[in-house]
Amino acid sequence: MLLYRLLISLFATAVLLRRGPSRLTIPDPQDGPHVWLHGASNGELASVRPVLERLTAADPERRWLVTANTETARDMVAGWALPRVSARLAPVDLQRVTGKVIRDWGVTAHVSLEAEIWAHRFLDCPGPVILLGARMSEGTARGWGRVPGLSRRVLERVRFASAQDAGSMSRLVALGLPEMARGPVVDLKSFYAPPTVTPPAGFARNHTWLAASTHEGEEAIVLAAHAAAREAEPDLRLILAPRHPRRAREVRAMAEDLGLTVAQRSLGETDGTVYLADTMGEMALWYAAVGRVFVGGTLTDRGGHTPYEPAAFGASLIHGPDVRNFRAAYGRLAGAGAALEIAQPDDLVQALAALADPGEQARMGALARETLRPEAGIETICEKISGTLETG
């Protein structure tokens, strides 16, 4: 525990230098007891929205404090305007800071998403602790394994846990999760319900493809493939959504160096064979606009991003070999022949051509959506959560 406190103190110092004292408290505490739900960023919290909507509807008395590590995720949750839900930036997990939040907000239980395991939040919570969609990679498990006493103390506080995959659940149990806390293996992102959105005009779905959440090293591959694919499909447009919009200038320069015209979302531009979607929180617009999606993070050492969201919109899927963040989901897609995996960058042009036919796009998109339907129902998860909260 001393090592954890030292590391979290160093982390807190870095946060304070960057952002000031705002992460040392949660301001404007609301009256009444609260369940504290925490997720890292947009993806984690968007995945839990269907669960939270059902839980707030089922219990009109329960209040929720929802925290995120990023301002965009906090604002996203606030924009849902759910009753009795307060959205705030998460504080650093210093013992005195966490203790003050628990007292000020009357925290009675803690729900944490995916890989967000913070020792003081778990140990100091006066009520039940719940892990939803837990993700414990082999590397992270090795890290926790170096402090076995702490990992066991922290995980013994968990009353109910669902994990994204069987491997994560096994590693959590090995680190100290009680057997009685084991719940179903289900990825919360499989509950994603696509919102009704209207994409900007000018995108013909059958002739537009999306490179979603790309990382450094992938944009050059995507842009070269787009330029090559336009030789056979001259009307083809690309929506390029980098994972980090701050890289927009760099990405735009890459496209223009290839002779491609660029329209940049943040600048209000519309005409271009490449539409640079350099904004946050609008990915649903781009999924709805296209018939083909390349999932970013799969051609670099990033582990890949979610296939659930594009599949929910009925888009056909293309991805690279590095899918370890969603190994189970991509395994199901591969088993059903519901996505195209490319082994190397040059294969991307061939994959785009294989999905150029509108009928094939629709067939593969429908197959991906059906393949990724959740194995455990959302009602089951909500009942487990409610039961755990009620029994304390």
From TrEMBL:
Record has ATP-binding as a keyword: no
Membrane as UniProt keyword: yes
Site (Transition state stabilizer): 114, 189
EC number: 2.4.99.12
Cellular compartments annotated: Cell membrane
Function noted in UniProt: Involved in lipopolysaccharide (LPS) biosynthesis. Catalyzes the transfer of 3-deoxy-D-manno-octulosonate (Kdo) residue(s) from CMP-Kdo to lipid IV(A), the tetraacyldisaccharide-1,4'-bisphosphate precursor of lipid A.
Protein name (record): 3-deoxy-D-manno-octulosonic acid transferase
